[in-house]
Amino acid sequence: MAKCSICGKGAHFGNNVSHSHRKTNKMWKSNIKSVKCKVNGAAKKIYVCTSCLKSGKVERV
User: Which parts of 1-61 are beta strand (E)?
Assistant: First the structure.
């Protein structure tokens, strides 16, 4: 599973809890995109979460 190169956000794990309170495993995947960005003046493809893209932490090529 990919992680955000900027903030390190990745998948989160927990439990699905039914009405009878039985628990099964659950995984929440974060919204991560492969994006071409400027890194040290050169274009490079990195994984970035959409919250980092929206906040302007990444300069796209």
Answer: 12-17, 23-28, 32-39, 42-49
Q: What is the CA radius of gyration of the chain?
A: 16
The full set of domain ranges for the chain reads: 12-55
Measured CA to CA, the distance from residue 55 to residue 42 in angstroms comes to 21
- pTM (predicted TM-score): 0.79
Residues of the chain with pLDDT under 70: none
Spatial contact of 32 and 3, defined as CB atoms under 8 Å apart: yes
Phi and psi at residue 9, in whole multiples of 5°?
-70, 135
Q: What angle do CA 16, 14, 28 make, to 5 degrees?
A: 90
Which candidate, 36, 37, 42, 16, places its Cα nearest to that of 27?
16
